[in-house]
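USER: If only I could read backbone structure tokens as easily as an amino acid sequence. It would mean a lot if you studied the pair and described how this chain folds. Here is the record:
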Amino acid sequence: MASLSNKGYAQAGLGDYLQALYNFKEVVNLSFLVYNLPHVGQVESLAELSKTFAGLAIYDSAEYYLNWARFVLVSIPKDNKAHYDTAIYNVFDAQITINSLDASIHYSKGQVPQAIQLLELQLTMLKDTYPDNYESWPTYQTTVNNLFTYNNEIYNIDQALRYARMYYRLIQSKPDLLNEINALQNLGSIYSNRDQYDSANFYWQEALKRIANSNYKNSYLHTAILNNLGTLKLTIESYDSAIVLLNESLRIQYSKEAVQPKLHKTTLFNLAESYHWAGNYTQADSVYYDLIQSLLDDIVHNFTYLSDNEKLAFYKNQLEFIESYKSFALSISGLIPLQDSETPYINSEIPGRLFDLQLTTKAVILNASKRMKKNILQSGDTILIKIYSLLGGTEKSVGARAG
């Protein structure tokens, strides 16, 4: 099992998610053959499988295996007490793994405050469990690094800077190439959010230098930093440089069996915008088309199981892509003369595409709203129904349903 797990870790780290999935599924099967009672080994294997599905944005499968891992974990104390008594710290580490994964899934679905709350609780748990040496634990350091990422995502700059500095201080005690690259990535992100682009460029270029001759070349981290640099070049209107960097990121992503959807969509968006503002409308149209198809596939798949609140959070997370595409699409639709050219690029299919996009996204939101309305009106809670009616429901429909 150990060799299969290590192989899966390496494949996931390099972005070979489908191969990693295969090996982690094998590890899960083996763990239930080897241990006939609930065991930490089963929890760990299920968590890795869940994490890999989450990396592919297949959140229903990710949450299925995460919940299975939770069930096994809570079963250990009562159904395998001998193992629990001798491996209590392993059980705690498994609990931390599940919590981290839960936070990661919340983050990926656009529920960033919930993800931050889970990880802040996790820091407290780690401090309480290892009061003398918690800072030296890799899990503590990873948690701090993720808290930087999540706060940075929602432009909570003061908190992000706090966690970036904390992470940089923590890794000084035990220098490691991956930690060093992550620290440089963090610093670049902080300076970028502060509009200090020269500094951001410096730190991200330094990270690329570390990656160039390491095992992290062509990894997810490599493609993410290329995307960040490409985004920076787009921001400062250095479009040719942006296009080179973003295409390189996509080249590496497409060299894998499967792409990581969140990064993939972000890179496509930045590349489409770079082509757009460089005046290359044909290429921008092509890249935007790929982005919207990927986005709609994501929405249709994940909206089949998300709760109403999760649907809205997930949709809001995609809104920047959709609104930017609509703006670009109008400029090449021929409906409004927005291009400064005697021979503008026109795509006659755009009005139909915009109609399909509007229809799909509106249907998604309306379905979520209808289900929420039905639940409220059938709840029998007169106060909740009254609030709903004041916020946009109608007294007539409320009376009919509530009666």
Remarks:
- The CA atoms of residues 211 and 217 lie 5 Å apart.
- The two ends are 59 Å apart (CA to CA).
- Confidence is low (pLDDT under 50) at residues 394-403.
- The chain is about 80% helix and 0% strand.
